[in-house]
Amino acid sequence: MDTPIIPWHRTRAGRIFLIILACIGGIILIFAALTGYYLWRIGRGDRAELQTIFVNQFTFDPEKQNKDNVATVDPKSVIRSYSPTLGEETAPITIIEFIDFECPFCQASWPIFEKIKERFGPAIRVVFKHIPVTQIHKQTLSAHIAATCADEQDKFWQYEKEIFTAKKLDAVALNAYAKNLNLDLNSFNRCIQTKKYLKNIETDIRDAADLGVRGTPTYFVNGRKLEGVIPEDIWSKIIIAEIQKQ
Known about the structure:
By secondary structure, the chain is of the alpha+beta class. It has 2 domains: 8-45; 61-245, Glutaredoxin. The protein contains 9 helices and 5 strands. Helix 3 crosses helix 9 (232-245). 29% of the residues are buried.
């Protein structure tokens, strides 16, 4: 007597395969539904609300971070001669910031950090490091190159303000910022076209890797690493604590 042939989908292996296939299909459907929902929300004009939700999710409270979160490499060793710097070298607190101009968390952090710089003034020295994350931010490298060209004319911090205030990184906007700051446009555009300071940006990226920077924004406050959008009150506590150590 011939052995009856069992359809493959009724075998144990077939059932397992179908279950796995159903799970994968379910995950794809959920992902598609969520993507469609957020695209619909953005289309309705809810972009700002959604960004606030995500910023809150990815905000790190430094008080909950490991207090021994100190870089194995001395952060001051990555302060280069070309690094944009605010404040005196003798200031009791040195803050090195690794920033991506297109990063939404850097954009959320910028106005907070501006208040901190204004409040603590002479007590802090701020050093800027470029870390454009080009894998997910398509316009960021051009913005960082433009900022280095503005720095050539001693207008880096003013140019940074233009970027974070307007939040536009297309070529027209980058040129408009230069006009707003009365830069020498011929020199500025020539600098951009030749990518004159690209090697400096690449060095900053290597420095970030050496210091274990995992994302933006990342700050080093007298060697202690802090990540994410830090609330103003937490910033104040950290800086006051550092001042009291002096």
